[in-house]
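Shipment paperwork, digital attachment
Item: protein structure file
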Amino acid sequence: MISIWSAKLKGIRDSSKRLADQWTEEQSPKDVLLRIRSFYLLAGLAGGIFNPYLSSMLVGGGLGSGQVGLLLSIGTFISILVQPVWGLIVDRFQQMRLVLLLSVAIPGLLSILYQSPYFLILIMVYTISTVFTATQAPMADSYALVAAQKANTTYGAIRFLGSAGTAVGGYLGGLYVSQYDVSLIWIPFMLFNVLAAILAFTLPRRSDESRILNQSLSAGIKTLLTNRLFLFFLGGSLLVNQTLTAFNSYFVLSFQDAGGTLQLAGVGLLIASAANIPSMLIAARVIRRIGHEKMLLLAAFAYILRWGIQWLFPVPSVMLAVQLLHGLSFGFFYIAAVEYVSRITSKHMQATGQSIFNMVFVGIAGIIGNLLNGYLLELGGSQAMNLSCVISALLGSLLLLYVAVQSRYSSSVPQS
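Attachment content:
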């Protein structure tokens, strides 16, 4: 009798799974496009509300800035290690939808534990959350690339919603923490992540481009790392982008250190994210006029200017106004860097090149930046942190200048 009921239950489960897969796989390109755009918006809202205030919440819970930097760095380091594992899992079990769903659901549900007073528990929560969050971008981007192709639109027109969500989320986060205690910022974060998870469940089970996530790094790392210009480019990107953690992780703390309020900090986050939008829209036009290398130098100079102004004038009004440079610094740099990597790597090594770039630009730069800037913020305040960012961006600019000069020289040499 038990075996009969087990067989019936298994049949019901299999039938439900087939119906669910049939329902999602038969969606029109426009349906998928709408859902992935909505996913970017919800995920952007969640991140925009929560991420800038995470350090404030942790410091309010009793941690020092140095401890916060250590916590963030540990999570980022582990996320670098697990990214290839996620690729293998997706390829082996063909579960892109499930992995994307978990990438928002797990961090959202675990966020309630950030109220714990124990440092070890906080490290575990952030690390587990980061392990799942690490796979969100490649999974969502894979869906977006296919949706854009099938719906005859561009990837930027889809990804744009993520930046818009982050901009609005940063502002709403400021309003929220001005009305409620910052320790409760996990509530809207959980809400938007759960909504994003529900939306992810309505996507097709896997993207047509899912195999791009499985391309091995080992096959191309040796070739790319013998390219001297590529190494100088990575070094410049590392030195420039590690400064961004002074904004992503510590802007709210440094803004309060300068006498600003949490509500005004939300305005600053809104300005920065909104500044990305026009920059991303005109980036392709600027690159066509001046080239990738000069665009990278222009963006690096914007980083130097951004941190230099805040170092010289550490007052809330200036710190708000200078966020207008976020688009010229991060927005221009990221787009130019991604396209530069695509240009200098061969067709069969595109995924490898982008993976290495992201590991350096996001992963290693994030670890170094969180540790260094958190330590400097605790040791010498926002002044010490901003001065360090000026120096780091300047050194990165020198490496990128070498790349630009050598690239120009190489292109001017007649090919035999």
